[in-house]
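Bit of a strange request maybe. I'm writing a small parser for structure token strings and I need a real example to test against, not something I typed by hand. Could someone generate the tokens for this chain?
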Amino acid sequence: MPIPSEFPDAPLPNEPHSERLINALWNHYTKNPDRVALIRILMLVPPILVFLAKNPIVDKYDLSSVEFMMTGGAPVGKDLIEGVYKRLPNVRFITQAYGMTECGMSSHFPVLDKEHYAAAGKLLSNFEQKIVDIETGQELPRNKVGEVYIRTPSNMLGYLNKPEATAECLSSDNWFKSGDLGYLDDNGWLYIVDRLKELIKVKGLQVAPAELEDLLLSYPDVQDCAVIGIPDEKSGEVPKAFVVKKNPNLTEQQVYDWVKSKLAPYKWLQGGVEFVDEIPKSASGKILRRFLREREKNKKTQVASKL
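Reply from user aminoacidic:
Good idea to test on real output. This should exercise your parser:
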């Protein structure tokens, strides 16, 4: 049932990539011309941030009342957050929520300044954290990327009737292995890079799809994107980008050259660029890479059958 509150709320539609999202806010605005009860806080999944940063529809509406946004469910990069700040200058803070059910939900306090806005936050009291090398299992120093481990008295006892799954993610001394790649900066801010299982390994070097996606979203002619690793005989895997055009004249070579100009060679899109109508995502905003991998697999099967 609804929770009584002195603050106004406005239900948002289940179709975040349509104009209905903005209409919901606008309709609430028109019902409150005195601006006393306007929407000031938005809780959003990452695809809606992409929508706010990239969709031209946003320019048609007055969203100046919005001052604070919180997002979660998937990593959000610095370039995307900067794009939203630029588009909606009245927004004071964009923060990322971080936590997991296995550790009692939220484990970190969100960022409330623009200096560390790409961070997931700082550790809450009664929690411990460490960054662990995924190869050696040793704890890593500051500014080194590894798997995020969390420990707290509220950690789960285990997954019901799933002892093997429990053993994989919960150590004997109660450290929960999050499956997230991240690092701690010199001041203790946690930055999430990507999911461990999503890593692309190019000649033994690790490439995080989220890093490439954040860079691609900063390109003005790109509306949305996703990156996966595809098999390669020489490198093991190479990155491939699926891109939704914002500019219909955008070419694969332009996208490739953009990444080439910004990143080290092993992060280039050697797997190619493919234009698509939309990026498959879950209701919580996570990119469904398995559908893209299946798409790529089916394409290779069709090519092989014609030979």
